[in-house]
Amino acid sequence: MAKKDTIETTGETLGKPGLSIKEGIVSSLKGINEIEAEIVTLVRNTVSNTLHLTGTVTSEGVNLTKDVLKGAIAATEEVGTGLILSTKSVAKGIVMGVSDVGGDVINISGQTVKGAVKGAAEIGADVGLVARRAVDGVIEATKEIGGNVEEVAKIAVGGAIEAAGTIGNTAVRSVRDMLVGVVEGVKEVLNAAVPKQKPTASKAPAAKPEISRTRKRGR
To answer: Beta partners for 8?
Structure first.
């Protein structure tokens, strides 16, 4: 008797079509991980090598970050792939490259996220998702280099909100919704960045009772 092409998964039998899909997705995801790792390495080496040559980490770092992000955006436009996929890897590579030459990781994290959000808006990409991927990238890089994750997260989220604010209220809401709960302390940044609602007129004290008492005394 021939064996069936089945496999047990989550308490149910997975047939041949399901097994084929599973293997295809696993293979694709492995491929994506490899591509992302290559992007991180490419960006990291480019940033660190360039800063080594210029010898001006503080001033050149911000300009280099902008140029790298522009290159990433141009690449996604040329190959027709969304910016969302590569943003995390590019952001991670930038932070690690700056760290390699002793640069200001906290400042560059904020600049990286700002640039990613503005770039996403320029090409019509999902600003909220790009912001989240960029923040994830700088946080992941900071963890790997042993930096101050909480401080970097706050600066990165603040940068995302600030950049979204230059685009419009819809962008601010989109970014805020995607980033709430990324790390502890982020809500304070969000609350400070999002404009408070003005009190409604219905909350103002009514003047009628006072007028009524004055009329009675007049009689």
So the answer is: 13
Q: Is 125 helix (H, G, I), strand (E, B) or coil?
A: coil
Helix, strand and coil in the chain, % to nearest 5: 75, 5, 20
Query: DSSP for 58-124?
Result: HHHHHHHHHHHHHHHHHHHHHHT--HHHHHHHHHHHHHHHHHHTT--HHHHHHHHHHHHHHHHHHHT
Does residue 101 contact residue 56 with C-beta atoms inside 8 Å? no
Distance CA 109, CA 163 (A): 13
Q: Which two tokens stand for residue 51?
A: 């800063």
170-192 pLDDT per residue, tens = 889 889 888 876 755 555 655 66
| Nearest CA-CA partner of 115 in 61, 51, 170 | 61
Give the residue extent of every domain in the chain.
20-194
Beta bridge mates, 12: 9
Q: For residues 27-62, b (16+ Cβ closer than 10 Å) or e, as one string?
A: eeeeeeeeebeebbeebbebbbebbeeeeebeebbb
> How many C-beta atoms lie closer than 10 Å to residue 198's C-beta?
6
178 vs 128: CA distance, rounded Å: 6
**What is residue 4's three-state secondary structure?**
coil
Q: Would the pTM count as exceeding 0.70?
A: yes
CA–CA–CA angle 48, 130, 28 (5° rounding): 85
Residue 5 — pLDDT band, cuts 50, 70, 90?
Answer: low
CB neighbour burial string for 125-143, b if at least 16 within 10 angstroms, e if fewer: bbbbbbbbbbbbbbbbbbe
